[in-house]
Amino acid sequence: MTSKFCFRGLDIAVEYDYQPEEPMVRYYKDGSGYPGCPESVEINAVLLGDYDITELCEEIMDKIEDRLYEFRNNAPDDEI
Q1: Is the Cβ–Cβ distance between 19 and 37 less than 8 Å?
Q2: Euclidean distance between CA atoms 70 and 39, whole angstroms
Q3: Total domains present in the chain
Q4: Which domain covers residue 58, as residue numbers?
Q5: ∠ CA 73-75-80, rounded to 5°
C-alpha cells in the first residue's frame, strides 16, 4: 500500500504493508480461543518525490509510523 500525506511540512509517500486488527475470540466450539492482535504497519519505503529517503528517516521512523496510523484512522477510505 502507499499513502501520501504531509509530514513536518513535506509531502511524502509511504509504501508499507498493513495488517488490520484482529479481534479476540474467547472460546471457539472446541474450547480453544484466539487472543487477537493489534493493527500493524511495516514501512518499506519513504519517498520524497522520486527520491527514496528511507535511510535518512531511520531516527524518526516511529514518528512516521505514528503519523501513518493517524492518517489511516482518520482518512476516508478512498484516500488510503
Answers
A1: yes
A2: 12
A3: 1
A4: 2-79
A5: 100
What are 18-64's pLDDT values in tens digits? 999 999 998 888 989 999 999 999 999 999 999 999 999 999 999 99
79 Cβ contact partners less than 8 Å away, ≥ 6 residues apart: 3
Alpha helices in the chain (DSSP H): 61-74
Could you tell me the end-to-end alpha-carbon distance of the chain, in angstroms, rounded to an integer?
A: 8
Which residue in this structure is represented by grid cell 496510523?
A: 69
Distance CA 13, CA 2 (A): 6
d(CA 32, CA 39): 22
Residue 78: predicted pLDDT: 56
pTM of the model: 0.76
